[in-house]
Amino acid sequence: MTSTLSPARAAGLSAGLAIGSALLSNFAPLEPWGVLQIGPRLDAIPLLPGIYFGLVVCVGGFLTGTRNPLSLALLLAMIVVAWVCAWKTGYQLYERLERDHPGPIGSAGASVLAPARLAITGLVAGLVGSAITVLGVIIVRRDFRSVANCARTIAIGTAAGTLLACNSVIESMLPLFLVWQPAVAASIAFGLARPKPRPAAPTIGGSAPVET
Fold this sequence. Notes:
This protein has helices at 7-27, 48-63, 69-100, 114-140, 147-160, 167-170, 174-193; strands spanning 35-36, 45-46. It is mostly helical and 212 residues long.
């Protein structure tokens, strides 16, 4: 089904919804479903941020032509998986960087390398999360499968991941959520709503196609 929304409007609507999901991800990350426990107790993964953002992307998919409930459910599941994988990647990478490169201790009693470690962690986690998210989108929507759509979305998610460094200053992931989620959601919706090139008309005996 072809989208009736312009790419800009689809991107704007998705970004607006994602601002809401970003706020929920930061201020209501646990209830009512709690966390997913994989590995150390300190590495408990809050599931709701992935669900919030997944619902936003599903709404964007619905508005741009995806009507199959199973497809939307698969897309939601893939985005939750992307969130879990990004969290695990970030946690394990930060632990390794902290162990291998502790750095000098500043006046506040924390390592002066903490912001750099968080930026690197966020960069890699953002790459993982956005790549798996894009994979979910292209599985459900073949019309998203272009180098431009995939590269743009992954690049945005990877770059926005560096905002995890803000956590070392304000001890909050809100800046990350407020940029990563709206920007990635807008990129996906923009790609889904873009008019797709029409296939060329068949030719007979090498003659030019006849327009009717």
